[in-house]
Amino acid sequence: MAAQWMITNRKPRGGELGPDEGPLTYWMCQAGGHAETLKKLMHWEQLTATQFTRELRRTVEEQFPALDDHQHEDERHVALFVHGFNTSALDALRRHQQIQRAIFDRPKLGTCILFSWPSDGSKVAYYPDRKDARASAEELAEVLALLYDYLADRQALAMRSGVKTCKAKTSIVAHSMGNYLVQKAMQAVWTRKNQPMLLSLVNQLVMVAADVDNDLFGSGELVDRSDGDAVANLTYRVTALYTGLDATLGLSAGFKHFGKRRLGRSGLDAQKPVPDNVWAADCTGMFRSAGVRDIHSAYFDVKRTQDLIVAILRGVDRGVIQARFSQVS
After folding, report:
1. How many Å apart are CA 128 and CA 115, to the nearest integer?
2. Residue 138 has pLDDT above 60, yes or no
3. Kindly report the CA angle at 92 between 228 and 127, in degrees rounded to 5?
4. What architecture is domain 4-324?
5. How confident is the model at residue 223, as a pLDDT?
6. How far is the C-alpha of 215 from the C-alpha of 43, rounded, in Å?
């Protein structure tokens, strides 16, 4: 396996990452290995933010091909995976490795970085996890701000030289409550960096089984400086994958008995306008045909939904995606 990358605000405990919040740290493992091995931090090299960015840039320069504009669907990604609630440090590593293999390595789509935040790793810890996600948004915002500054510098260089200077797209794949963390982090970055909009921070944001309100983007094309406004303005395209079969998000809705339905269970609120770059795909038909039970995480396990995520990340037109994946509505 190629080098693995991790950014985390989990506090180390006993040589491993624990369930408590700590300072933001950056890690790289050149040798790779199974998650059960890599849960021990002795197998990782801790880097500063500057060193991490430099090593990642070197990987892009050495391993990513330079492509013409008409080949943009083949351009590789530097992606960030943000896991959901009820996820221990080991479970986060396992899921990250599986996503890297199935969604990024198999179609040669690029490199995926794990952002591991201190979820309590318990189904009964929904409220503590939501609190942890909100608290972790500032650390994720720090990561996104670094990325924003880098992209702004590369864009300025390209304008001066007339030569394309970046070989990679940036993307985020967020699962479950990880979407709430991304929502709050993007609001923080947009407030600091990007009002009004100057450039897209993220090319593709894939909101998988999102545990957020389904009217998040309800301001439509209006600029109201809401969380949804921030996400839509910082992203070239936002895609929400959902299904009414998701019992886990039914549990979330039960806990959060006030407010709106969950985006990952009900899709976008049909009574609200949405920005043109935001859409949702109902994956219910795919799960029924595959006979899946653990729906909440099945997007990463079912071959058909893996292929759907790849097509979304490649930037395939949504109409083409709907025609290609006939079970998506």
Report:
1. 18
2. yes
3. 55
4. 3-Layer(aba) Sandwich (3.40)
5. 77
6. 43
Query: DSSP labels for 299-312?
Result: TTTSHHHHHHHHHH
Identity at 141, one-letter amino acid code:
A
- Element spanning 151, H or E: helix 126-161
**Three-state secondary structure call for residue 119:** coil
Rounded-to-integer distance, Cα 213 and Cα 210, Å? 8
210-228, pLDDT tens digit by residue? 999 999 998 878 778 899 9
Q: Which of 278, 123, 303 is nearest to 204 (CA)?
A: 278
From 4, 166, 165, select the one nearest 95 (Cα to Cα). 4
The span from the CA of 70 to the CA of 119, in Å, is: 41
Distances (CA, A) of 194 to 18, 55, 137, 152: 34, 27, 17, 11
Cα–Cα distance, 255 to 35 (Å, whole number):
32
Q: Which amino acid is at 189?
A: V
φ, ψ of residue 6 in degrees (nearest 5): -150, 135
User: pLDDT of 56-82, one tens digit each?
Assistant: 989 988 888 888 878 888 888 999 999
Note whether 272 and 215 are within 8 A (CB). yes
Domain ranges of the chain: 4-324
Q: What is the pTM of this model?
A: 0.93
For the chain, the 3-state helix, strand and coil shares in percent, each to the nearest 5, are 45, 20, 35
Q: Which H or E element spans position 53? A: helix 49-63
Backbone angles phi, psi at 298, to 5 degrees: -70, -20
